Design the sequence.
């Protein structure tokens, strides 16, 4: 009887872990893939390029960068909201300049996945993304 209880508990624990893994794998995500990182001739600055994949309906939370960003849309439709400016929706082939330190968000508003190539000119040694900021209100 005691062994049956132990086996039942083990099965429940294993099942819970599998269910959690399945739920996590189905949650929408933003995937960032580093493409390039290179020092600039300007002291203390570097250029960084990152491919950012947005699952359907996903938004990247309010954040900023320690330098300028140029967001170039490769696929899908992305809506950007930059503090102090009205929201803008970009399609493939369109780009947006985001000033250093500007709090902004990006959201996939298309019917499928969306992808951007983000190019940053930033202060070397600082975190590239600063999260936990208040969303821009326009």
Sequence:
């Amino acid at each position: 009887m005691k062994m049956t209880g132990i086996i039942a508990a083990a099965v429940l624990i294993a099942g819970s872990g599998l269910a959690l893994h399945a739920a996590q794998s189905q949650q929408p995500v933003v995937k960032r893939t580093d493409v390039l990182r290179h020092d600039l001739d300007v002291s203390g600055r570097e250029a960084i390029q990152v491919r950012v994949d947005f699952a359907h309906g996903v938004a990247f939370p309010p954040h900023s960068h320690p330098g300028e960003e140029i967001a170039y849309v490769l696929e899908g439709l992305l809506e950007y909201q930059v503090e102090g400016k009205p929201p803008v929706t970009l399609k493939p082939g369109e780009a947006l300049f985001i000033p250093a330190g500007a709090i902004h968000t990006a959201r996939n508003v298309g019917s499928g996945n969306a992808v951007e190539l983000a190019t940053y000119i930033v202060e070397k040694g600082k975190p590239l993304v600063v999260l936990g900021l208040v969303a821009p209100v326009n």
Remarks:
- The chain has one domain: 30-131.
- Confidence is low (pLDDT under 50) at residues 7-25.
